[in-house]
Design brief:
Number of helices: 9
Structural class: alpha+beta
Mean pLDDT: 92
Strand order of the largest sheet: 12-13-14-15-16-17-18-19
Distance between the termini: 31 Å
Shape: globular
Order of helices and strands: HEEEHHHHHEEEEHHEEEEHEEEEEEEE
Helix content: 10-25%
Largest sheet: 8 strands, antiparallel, barrel
Radius of gyration: 22 Å
Strand content: 25-35%
Low-confidence stretches: 1-18
Number of strands: 19
Length: 449
């Protein structure tokens, strides 16, 4: 669900050839994940399922090993797509149906189709790009609140002219499912998927659900983990409000690809790409010469991942309530170990540099791409020992924070984003700006106060 402007994030993996399965993968995966847990890089659960049999499961949660339910964020979109395709299979909806019947006030509603919503080709404004989103996460939102938010902002593009991920597409699909079935979205999840296919621990959360039966999420501040704000489920809704377990998610993916939940033609539609990786509720995820289908998820500090590799009838599932490493790094690590590929553990260098004091870096900065175009503002604050927080801000409103670790006197690093920040100073040692680098992208920032 959540956005991050200043560091780019990738969905998955890469492609070469050659495999030799590691017969000792269980011990090796345990070793990797225990290492990451010790380094405060990962807290959560990892499972691998072969066809209908779970062949590996590991609990590396730092907070409560007896609770196995997690918010799964945008993995919810797979469930929403399944509901939509079930209705299509039943003749109650068509891919080419326009959405003006349901949302007559939304711009371009008479040309935006169900297929556009499923494939992120509608151009509809992404409500999680709203400046107040992060600070308003705990508030309750009605259907009209979401529609009003869409109507107050311009579309990103004309329908079918581009493909851009937008949570709003799936929020609207959830409302459409409600209209067609005359039942709340959570009830549809329960009756059409959870109860029908034996997923006892999967449900769409509502404000009335008992939050103590699932994990909370936590953010690392450099010294300890702090409980994060718990989003009200009314905003993510059908784009990100489901709670589940590794076991349920693995079973759901196996049943989907075993042609048990929707028709073959609908499954083929789900895998039909409208961009390099975006399908219709599923994302294409290559790993060397293997092709997987799944989705990643993020809400609050929860992360999740499901992926099915048809050639091996293999499902990888990850749920997490705290992470300081990129989720992609953990995915690659686990798959590399399982498939016997070369893999180097991530490094976690600890800096002993304590001067200058981190207080000199605090303040507000304007970020410019290529030194010309202002792309936003950010704020640097002190947190922990030799750590900083970087967050976007807008008129003092609360925004998401990214943890920065010190590497040397003037250089800090974000493990999760894989980006490096070097603070610039003048001849008097006063901080004047930041050079932010991630891969081939460089963003220059000027200190404004």
């Amino acid at each position: 669900m959540m956005k991050r402007l200043f560091f780019l994030t990738a969905i998955l993996l890469f492609s070469i050839a050659g495999f030799t399965q590691n017969s000792n993968y269980k011990t090796s995966i345990d070793s990797l994940l225990n290492f990451l847990k010790t380094e405060n890089a990962f807290s959560g659960r990892v499972s691998i399922q072969k066809a209908d049999k779970v062949i590996y499961t590991g609990n590396f949660d730092k907070f409560n090993n007896n609770i196995v339910k997690y918010k799964i964020g945008s993995v919810t979109k797979v469930f929403t797509a399944l509901l939509v395709y079930q209705l299509i299979d039943e003749g109650k909806l068509q891919l080419n149906s326009t959405i003006d019947k349901y949302f007559p006030t939304i711009k371009n509603a008479n040309t935006i189709t169900i297929e556009n919503l499923l494939s992120h080709t509608s151009g509809i404004y992404n409500v999680t790009e709203w400046d107040d989103y992060y600070g308003s996460r705990a508030n309750h939102f009605t259907r009209q609140d979401i529609v009003d938010l869409v109507n107050k902002n311009k579309p990103a593009f004309k329908p079918n002219s581009d493909c851009l991920y937008s949570n709003t597409n799936y929020i609207l699909l959830g409302y459409i499912v409600e209209d067609i079935t005359s039942k709340p979205y959570p009830q549809n999840i329960k009756e059409r998927i959870s109860d029908k296919y034996g997923l006892p621990d999967t449900y769409c959360e509502t404000a009335s659900n008992d939050k103590t039966v699932r994990q909370q999420s936590y953010k690392f501040n450099g010294e300890s983990f702090v409980k994060d704000t718990d989003s009200d489920p009314s905003f993510p809704f059908a784009a990100g409000a489901i709670v589940s377990t590794n076991e349920d998610l693995g079973k759901m993916m196996y049943l989907l690809f075993d042609h048990k939940i929707i028709t073959d033609s609908s499954l083929s539609e789900m895998k039909k790409l409208r961009s390099k990786s975006i399908g219709h509720g599923l994302m294409k995820a290559p790993f060397y010469d293997k092709i997987g289908w799944g989705h990643t998820g993020r809400i609050d500090e929860f992360r999740s991942f499901i992926c099915y590799f048809p050639d091996d009838s293999l499902v990888l599932t990850i749920t997490s309530d705290a992470m300081t490493l990129k989720l992609n790094e953990i995915i690659i690590g686990v798959l590399s170990i399982y498939y016997g590929r070369s893999y180097n553990y991530p490094s976690f260098p600890k800096s002993s540099v304590t001067t200058p004091g981190t207080e000199i870096f605090t303040g507000s900065y304007k970020a410019k791409l290529a030194g010309l175009i202002t792309v936003g503002k950010l704020e640097i604050t002190q947190v922990g020992k030799n750590y900083l927080y970087m967050n976007e801000y807008n008129d003092g409103k609360e925004t998401e924070k990214s943890l920065l670790e010190r590497r040397d006197a003037y250089t800090f690093y974000s493990k999760e984003a894989g980006g490096e920040l070097t603070f610039q100073t003048d001849s008097d040692g006063k901080v004047t700006g930041i050079s932010m680098v991630q891969g081939k992208v460089t963003i220059k920032c000027k200190k404004v106060n």
